[in-house]
Q: What sequence folds into this?
């Protein structure tokens, strides 16, 4: 895989930012398709994961970064996410970072592969958040198709018994599911409704 995932990551982060802007404080305690996360914890994880990939892009030790952003006030999630996504975009600006070996939670990989994995994570969590908020915005299907392709490459087995994996075994996609629904099903997620 020799693509430059930075434009896709930028689009994915813009989509998340638009979605985060719709979050109201009274929604923060609501459920998400990630059973262990409420909306607030999901936002914390989205922002923390973005900070982690920013540190990786800058050549730092992303594994030393907790994948959650703590201490964000209920009405500051949008600005907190904007700060970390700007940091991530700047840290990946150097083309050399795409071929540099980096360490991410699933192992060592060239930067372009690592960042592609984070596109998959960002797009997946976009679906999680969108489901949690009642689908307030139309989502970019091209991003979901890319993320699904990455998911199929890195998680080829439909049975995922490894408790370290943050994805459950694949479930059947609902009939007529769009790219996000197929991605979510492949990663073991089910709609809330």
A:
């Amino acid at each position: 895989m020799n693509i430059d995932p930075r434009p896709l990551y930028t689009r994915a982060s813009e989509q998340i930012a638009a979605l985060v802007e719709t979050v109201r404080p009274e929604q923060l305690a609501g459920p998400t398709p990630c059973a262990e996360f409420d909306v607030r914890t999901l936002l914390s994880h989205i922002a923390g994961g973005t900070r982690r990939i920013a540190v990786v892009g800058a050549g730092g030790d992303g594994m030393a970064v907790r994948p959650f952003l703590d201490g964000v006030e209920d009405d500051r999630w949008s600005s907190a996410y904007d700060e970390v996504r700007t940091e991530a975009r700047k840290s990946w600006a150097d083309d050399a970072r795409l071929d540099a070996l980096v360490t991410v939670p699933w192992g060592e990989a060239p930067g372009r592969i690592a960042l592609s994995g984070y596109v998959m994570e960002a797009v997946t969590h976009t679906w999680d958040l969108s489901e949690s908020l009642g689908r307030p915005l139309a989502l970019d299907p091209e991003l979901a198709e890319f993320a699904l392709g990455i998911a199929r490459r890195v998680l080829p087995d439909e049975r995922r018994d490894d408790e370290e994996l943050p994805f459950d075994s694949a479930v059947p996609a609902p009939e007529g599911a769009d790219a996000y629904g197929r991605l979510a099903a492949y990663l073991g997620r089910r709609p809330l409704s």
